[in-house]
Specification:
The protein is mainly β. It is built from no helices and 16 strands. The protein has strands at residues 2-5, 15-17, 25-28, 40-42, 52-55, 62-63, 69-72, 76-80, 85-87, 96-97, 110-112, 122-124, 128-139, 144-147, 151-159, 163-166.
């Protein structure tokens, strides 16, 4: 399923993505569709391959809990709709660490380019520290994703059948 938010929203609570399977995707159809007064919680169930923010603009919110921040408490991530878009958490290209500071928790999957949630390439630009473990990135069947930041300190398994391009100078082993 795909829910479209297209207005300039002003809600103050969290937008929670908590679907099962390939569901729980939200199309943000303008730059203020996700209210700056509210947070975003990516909270997909363990078996989910959806729970992505399908973007029509580039995305630069920082990690954290509260207004204008994003955090993960389960499976999920990002897709791009109508044109290629990038994600740069915090806007400065700062590294993110798996299972730390609100980035994807242990046992959860980072979903990119979810099936039926986008039709363009999503580029995740932050360097990812895998926090001494092998992590899973799911790219939806027919989807296209790019990991352009450095991948380090662990390993990665790709699943889902979509196309992934890894373009950073990576230093992970695994």
């Amino acid at each position: 399923g795909l829910l479209e938010l297209s207005g300039a929203n002003t809600y103050t609570g969290d937008l929670v993505l908590a679907g099962q399977g390939a569901y729980g995707n939200v199309l943000l159809n303008n730059a203020t569709a996700a209210s700056v007064g509210g947070g975003i919680n990516i909270a997909g169930l363990a078996s989910s391959t959806g729970n992505t923010l399908s973007l029509t603009n580039d995305f630069t919110r920082a990690l954290g809990t509260g207004a204008n921040l994003i955090r993960w408490t389960g499976n999920g991530g990002f897709s791009a709709a109508f044109a290629n878009h990038f994600v740069n958490l915090g806007g400065n290209g700062d590294p993110v660490t798996w299972a730390s500071s609100g980035f994807v928790p242990n046992g959860s999957v980072f979903n990119l380019a979810a099936t039926n949630a986008g039709n363009a390439e999503i580029d995740f630009r932050n360097p990812i520290n895998f926090n001494n473990a092998v992590r899973t990135v799911n790219v939806g069947l027919g989807g296209t994703a790019r990991l352009s930041g450095v991948l380090s300190n662990g390993g990665v398994t790709y699943q889902g059948g979509g196309q992934v391009t890894v373009s950073g100078t990576n230093v992970y082993t695994g």
